[in-house]
Amino acid sequence: MKVTHLLASSLLAATLVAGPSLAEDDAAAYRETRLGLYVTASEAYDLMQENERAVLIDVRDPIEVKFTGFAEPTDIHVPWVVADREHFDEEARTWPMVKNTDFETQVRAELEALDVAVDDPIIVMCRSGSTRSAPGADVIAEMGFSRVYSMTDGFEGGKLEEGDSKGVRAVNGWRNSGLPWSYEIAPDVAWRPAE
Q1: How many CA atoms lie within 13 A of 59 on its CB side?
Q2: Strand order across the 55-58 sheet
Q3: Could you tell me the sign of the dihedral formed by the alpha carbons of 117, 138, 32, 173, in that order?
Q4: CA 120 to chain centre
Q5: Could you report the per-residue pLDDT of 106-119, keeping only the tens digit for each?
Q6: What is residue 50's three-state secondary structure?
Q7: Is residue 21 over pLDDT 90?
Q8: Is 76 helix (H, G, I), strand (E, B) or coil?
Q9: Of residues 42, 13, 26, the one with CA closest to residue 153
């Protein structure tokens, strides 16, 4: 398996939005992880084909998954941040994103339910490979797992740089690499908030 190492520059500064909310663009946006393990979507799929113990974790908001799709072999879905549907941000003209305070507890429970060993490959995927997969991978590594990969191009991949669809996420990523995905989410994988 070829592991892609990012040539990321420096970590972006973490910026908190007023109150407990985090704007996704202002969150600790970084791509480097403590373990330094990275895969593209295609490499992640190959790793999953080669190693039946490999686990794919999607850390995107459920509404995002609903409208953009879901990687079919996803084993665990626990969002890193979720939209705060109770507080509309007038200035930003959208709902703010807030950290899922149950992320670690929920991921740990799912990993235990799947009997994931500390040296099994765990792949963490967000939309584009930053802001969520890297910090999510770090939290999982802090739990004692030694092979936690951040997917560098995420589910949707990068943005087109030119043309009529400039800015649309259509470069690489799980969905744009011809890998199995669907708008249907397996009920036993779909995230449910803690009660």
Answers
A1: 34
A2: 38-39, 148-151, 122-125, 55-58, 76-77
A3: positive
A4: 18
A5: 999 999 999 999 99
A6: helix
A7: no
A8: strand
A9: 42
Question: What are the structure tokens assigned to 103, written together?
Answer: 């992320």
Output Rg (C-alpha) for the chain, integer angstroms: 16
Give the E-state strand segments of the chain in sequence order.
Answer: 21-22, 38-39, 55-58, 70-71, 76-77, 81-83, 97-99, 122-125, 148-151, 158-159, 169-171, 181-182
Which residues, 6 or more positions from 163, have their beta carbon under 8 angstroms from its beta carbon? none
Cβ neighbour number for residue 42 with a 10 Å cutoff: 18
Placement of tokens 């991978």 in the chain: 137
Rounded CA-CA distance 119/123 in Å is 12
State the sign of the Cα–Cα–Cα–Cα dihedral 176, 179, 182, 183. Answer: negative
Tell me whether strands 122-125 and 55-58 are parallel, antiparallel or unpaired. Answer: parallel
pTM: 0.82
Strand partners, 124: 57, 150
Angle formed at CA 128 by CA 51 and CA 90, multiple of 5 degrees: 140
Q: Tell me which amino acid residue 144 is.
A: G
